[in-house]
Amino acid sequence: MIDTIRISVPDWSHTDGSLLTFQRGPMVRGEHLNEGLLVWDQTGKEYHGHHAYYNDPTGFYSLDIRLFNGERYLSIQTSLPKVAGAGDNFHPVDIETTKSILAWIETDIRERAGIRFDIFNGTTLKRIDLFKNIIPDYGLPVYREALSHMNIARGKLKDYGVSGYLMGNTQWQICLYDKWTEMKKRGVETTGYDRRTIRVESRLLDDRKIIATLGISALSDAIDNPDVLRSYYVESLRRTMFHTPPSGDTLLPSAIDEIIALAMETGGQNFIQKFYQYYALLTLPSSGTDLTLLESKLSDAASQLPGRNRSVTRFMEEMRAIDQIRLMQQPAKGKAKGKSVGDLYSELESKLLDT
Question: Domain segments of the chain: what residues?
Answer without folding.
Answer: 1-122, 133-212+227-241, 253-353
